[in-house]
Every structure is written in structure tokens, then in C-alpha cells.
Design brief:
Fructose-1,6-Bisphosphatase, Chain A, domain 1; 5-stranded mixed sheet; alpha+beta; binds L-MYO-inositol-1-phosphate; 7-stranded mixed sheet; 2 domains
Length: 262
């Protein structure tokens, strides 16, 4: 079995931990006024690190619950053990185990697995994107007005700072120009739903590398595009991500607010 197939098996096994926790009443700790973490986030990340580190020994692992900050490694495996922790705690089934493998600023391999809905998304660079073995393609829609756009709100929203005003100003500018918004609560899965053609675009501010490292490749391999707010190449250290089926990318970018203009 090749290394990526073994990685798929490991993520599937991690899904059992998530499923068991989802069926229980879960105690959550607060990382901040609005950000939650549970023992399942930590247990899944520890399991994944223990299994993946020997398999991908030439990479450094950057996990949401264990990363101590600093410069991102050139060759890294970004792990979000439960993307959508708030949904996990509130029993809203939009969540995913996200594993994104990057080298020199490019995504190489990606897995996003929602064990609650049994949606297993994966991609390898140049080999297409899949959900449960079915090939994925972004939706063929060239008109922003006919588009469903997914987004999310940053944990710092309660501080009503620059991120909050960007979200509000962008919503005010964009909402009349689209079919509707979907705020589902897990960026990794939002990006997979873009790849699957369920939504036509996605944007968000203040996401972490582990939220998007896998979803980005799945979008790209499904024919979509990912950029920063200026339309340039997205870096995992950028503050704002804008992704779409490609046909509406410039319309979407033109209808988001500039950052910092309160
Ligand atoms: C979440 C993202 C979501 C965002 C939330 C949070 P977490 O990640 O997936 O899109 O809106 O604020 O960042 O914290 O559940 O891993």
C-alpha cells in the first residue's frame, strides 16, 4: 500500500474517535471568549501525529492544538483534528478532520473527512479531487448573482476590530449581488463543498493554516482557484482567503470590502 493510501486509513481511524465523541455530551474548554476546544480535538490530534510522523518523517507536523507559533516549516503537514469544533459541541454535523501536506509553499496532498456525514474528500497534486471515490468538479456558473457563497466569522468578532468591520462591510457590499450566503462553520468542509459544486465561492478572514491547507488543494484539483484579497497567490500566512470556481473570482473579489477601511 502506498503512503497516501496508508494516510487515508489513518484519517478514517481518527474518524471513529470523532464519531464516538459526537454521540456524547461533550465538555468544552474556552480558548477565548468564543473559541472552544474539547478533549476529542486533543485526542484526535495526538492519534494523528503518532501515526503520521513515522510515515512522513521528512515533514514537520503543525497541529492546531500543539503548534507553538513561529515561522511555518518549508515541508509541513497541517492538521486540524476537528475543523468545526463549535459544530462538534453543538451537534451540527458540518465538521472535518483536515490533513494538508505542503512543501515550499505548494500543496501536495490533502484529506478532509467528515465522519458524521461519511464524506471523505481527498486530492493529490495533479491527480484530481475526489469525494468517496467520485471525481469532483467546481460548478459551471459565471454569474455572481446566481451564486451561493460560503463564508465564516472570526473568533475575534466580539472585539469589533478591523476583522469584524471587514466582515460587516463585505457582507453589506456582497449580499445584494449573490443568490445567498451559507455560513456552515468549518472552512475545510466549505472548501470541499466548493470543489463539489455545492457552493460557487468561499471567503473568510483570520483562518489558520490548518483550517485551509487541505481544502485549498481539493478546490484546485477540482478546477477552482484560490487567492488572497488582492487576487494574488494565496499564502498560508495571508489574513484573507478568497476561493471560487474561477469564473466568478474577479466578481467576488470586486465585491468584498478593502481590509482596514472601518
Ligand atoms: C473554524 C473554521 C470556521 C471559522 C471558525 C473557526 P475551528 O475552525 O473552520 O470556518 O469560521 O471561526 O476558525 O476553530 O473549528 O478549527
Amino acid at each position: 500500500m502506498n503512503r497516501f493510501e496508508e494516510l487515508k486509513k489513518i484519517v478514517k481511524e481518527a474518524g471513529v474517535i470523532v464519531k464516538n465523541g459526537y454521540a456524547k455530551t461533550v465538555d468544552a474548554d474556552k480558548k477565548s471568549a468564543t473559541e472552544l476546544v474539547t478533549k476529542y480535538d486533543k485526542e484526535v490530534e495526538e492519534f494523528l501525529i503518532g501515526q503520521i510522523a513515522p510515515l512522513y518523517s521528512e515533514y514537520k507536523i503543525v497541529g492546531e492544538e500543539s503548534f507553538k507559533g513561529g515561522k511555518l516549516p518549508e515541508r509541513a503537514i497541517f492538521i486540524d483534528p476537528i475543523d468545526g469544533t463549535t459544530n462538534f459541541v453543538h451537534k451540527f454535523p458540518h465538521l472535518g478532520i483536515s490533513v494538508g501536506i505542503w512543501s515550499s509553499g505548494e500543496a501536495e496532498e490533502a484529506i478532509v473527512y467528515n465522519p458524521i456525514l461519511e464524506e471523505f474528500f481527498y486530492a493529490q497534486k495533479g491527480q484530481g479531487a475526489f469525494c468517496n471515490e467520485q471525481r469532483l468538479y467546481v460548478a459551471d456558473e459565471e454569474n455572481l448573482q446566481n451564486s451561493i457563497i460560503a463564508t465564516g466569522f472570526p473568533y475575534v468578532k466580539h472585539e469589533m476590530g478591523a476583522e469584524y468591520w471587514w466582515v460587516i462591510n463585505s457582507m453589506q457590499k456582497l449580499l445584494p449581488k449573490i443568490r445567498d450566503i451559507r455560513r456552515l462553520g468549518a472552512a475545510a468542509v466549505d472548501l470541499c463543498y466548493l470543489a463539489q459544486g455545492k457552493v460557487n465561492g468561499f471567503y473568510e478572514v483570520n483562518l489558520q493554516p490548518w483550517d485551509v491547507a487541505a481544502g485549498i488543494l481539493i478546490v484546485q484539483e477540482a478546477g477552482g482557484v484560490v487567492s488572497n484579497l488582492s487576487g494574488g497567490k494565496y499564502s498560508l500566512e495571508d489574513n484573507i482567503i478568497v476561493a471560487s470556481n474561477g469564473e466568478i473570482q474577479s466578481q467576488l473579489l470586486n465585491n468584498l470590502a478593502e481590509f482596514g477601511n472601518d
